[in-house]
Amino acid sequence: MQKGGISPLFLCIFSGESCILQSMNAISGKSGSVKSGKARRILGIDPGSRFTGYGIVELDGDRIRWVASGCIKVKGDDLGNKLRIIAQGLNELLESHQPDEVAIEQVFLHRNVDSALKLGQARGAAISTVALRALPVSEYSPSQIKKSVVGKGNAAKEQVQHMIKALLCLSRIPQEDAADALAVAVCHAQNCQTQRKVSAMSRADHPLDGLALRRSSGKSRRRRWR
Questions:
Q1: Domain limits of the chain?
Q2: Would you name the residues annotated as active-site residues?
């Protein structure tokens, strides 16, 4: 591995008929499966019946760092087998990267009913796989994700790809499904940052609330013991 620039590397991990296509791009700083310090690792999922995108980032204070991204290629026409491929692929990712929480795109209105059903089935398989590991799952609408990453809810996919490349300091534009999944993860990370800042501002505005609450709790315990 050369410093400053890593050549694009594509990994195929086969499990039965499943294939995880992982695109590793050069980024600033460190990357890999080893989690740093107290960072929160977030897995973003962009469900699909042919390609299920995934993107993993770490939230460390004000920094959002790329860890891994790619897509699970779903083969065949049998529904049960396709859902099994998605579940197996995600299980491999959960095992190797150990995320702390998961974010997934909500189902959106689709003109094609058949496509909407297939998307819902893929999404259900993904959520079930994550839920079995008792990981917290957050959902975001496509417009929320695009607004968070690009600044407008009706942004084109190409704009999302370019912004993800810029935000995560990637050396090249990620594949479409991987970019969408990374956008989901970044959206959740930014939401966590906002919640943390709001909570910190609330504590700063009312510094004595915590002390009063502790004193009140102590008095209650003394009354019970008397």
A1: 9-200
A2: 46, 105, 177
